[in-house]
Amino acid sequence: MASSSTKPISTPPFTTTISSSSQPSTRSSLLSFLRNTTPTPISLKLSHSRNSFLNSHPSSSRSLSIKNATKTIESAETSRVSKVGGQDADSQETKPTILVSEKLGEAGLELLRSFGDVDCSYDLSQEDLCKKIASCDALIVRSGTKVTRQVFEAAKGRLKVVGRAGVGIDNVDLQAATELGCLVVNAPTANTVAAAEHGIALLAAMARNVAQADASMKAGKWQRNKYVGVSLVGKTLAVMGFGKVGSEVARRAKGLGMQVIAHDPYAPADRARAIGVELVSFDQAISTADFISLHMPLTPSTEKVFNDDTFSKVKTGARIINVARGGVIDEDALVRALDSGKVAQAALDVFTEEPPPKDSKLVQHERVTVTPHLGASTKEAQEGVAIEIAEAVVGALQGELAATAVNAPMVPAEVLSELAPYVVLAEKLGRLAVQLVAGGSGIKSAKVVYRSSRDPDDLDTRLLRAMITKGIIEPISDSFINLVNADFTAKQKGLRISEERVVVDTSPEFPIHSIQVQLSDVDSKFGSGVSEGGDISIEGRVKYGKPHLTRVGSFSVDVSLEGNLILCRQVDQPGMIGQVGNILGEQNVNVSFMSVGRTVQRRKAIMAIGVDEEPNQETLKKIGEVQAIEEFVFLKL
What is the pTM of this model? Predict the structure, then answer.
């Protein structure tokens, strides 16, 4: 692979521009739109087409298929002149119909009414919703309305956008929305201050036993000695998740005289330092804090992350506050921790099941303060959410693609067909890279290097960059990353993505020879994944139509990116494959492939092992105890 030149790719606002003397090739209007080179505003027509890639890769299918892009004549145009029997029919302006199925703030409703016909029909059954939806262009819901596949199919193609007045979209079938060409948007920012204030309210109420003392007095009792509280001044608060809400809680806690530490793998250290917060590892946070406030998303990696093992590590007498997601706490484990005295108190606004059972031991526990998911329940927050979702829905009906969209536009079918295997490769490289980052390291900078023989104008990498961003951010975040919001989300999280093109002498038949992902200024849990330049570095390419890992740090490997992966750095000596294979076989873990890459014979080597199942901790421990293995890491793909 001979490199003849290096060109950076333009990806505003993150990188530099292309230097090229060649004239731009003729591009489709869609690709011009995706590259932000269309000189005039455009509107979008969303089609309902499907393709084989979406069907075969559901995890990568949060996207909309854009049929074409045209110049805007009027931002609110909803009708066109049509031909009937060879004659021009009179065009008639019609307003879009917007169905609001749950209560929305008046300010939001007024904005919607200024644009379309608003139908406020609350408490609809699924049957009634399916009947109404066929005559609606937009639907706005909160958490109570289930927007199922049946609803999307009943719309018969008319429904253009679903707006979720709030953050979570668990009640919307994203896959069905994507397949049937419906944009889904949410309102993720308006609740921030309300949620932070509620967290502080629970913190103070718990510390001073406000709820218990109130109930006692209303029962006719006067128990001053029983409800002696604890002071907040000088106590350490650990903020678990330093995003919008977490950082606002930290600001307020500092004002109460508390010492604040935080854990978040993406939070920039300089942003934390600016408000006097120290970023620490997960274990350090929970073991040193007097109060632990949870602000992490509910993802597969955070589900029940506060379990028996975690509670065993917390400081004795710690107090827990949760205004994030109920599922991050194992509620039975929390009850055990409260009963044992390991956890002194808890204040909870969210629960695994909402509403929780009436006989819930956790809810009824005398040292637990509870509220019925009131984090966003202020007049101001409700109005803010109403306006935010109304603006997003109106923008979508006008053909705009909002940064709050949670499913993505799609590039043309022919471009997607060519990029399909590279899309899978890009996301998996992102997922691998972030799993190599040691806890407590904030990811600030990622660099993507594409090696290709093609001219810069013949390859649009926005989709690939979005998928790498998706792979880096989604595993430990509740963000939904797509082509629309990838750059926006990365910027919001303080992650700078830069891209570089290295022109190589390979066949132009294939769009990309290889993709390399580098993470800078982070610690690695697998030292061999660090390049000579000090960055975590992994590289991959598509072989036989499938993504392969070809380099880890300075070591060459050849690994099909399927299933799960174990990487081991070892002394290069005979019998290593057999030893590790026997350990896995004894635990009924099936090995799909093995590959060994080395720098110098009989010195150091990297062994890459593909496994179908996830080995248990005991199995991984045995691998680590093999004498010639110096380090290893298990990675989920």
Answer: 0.61
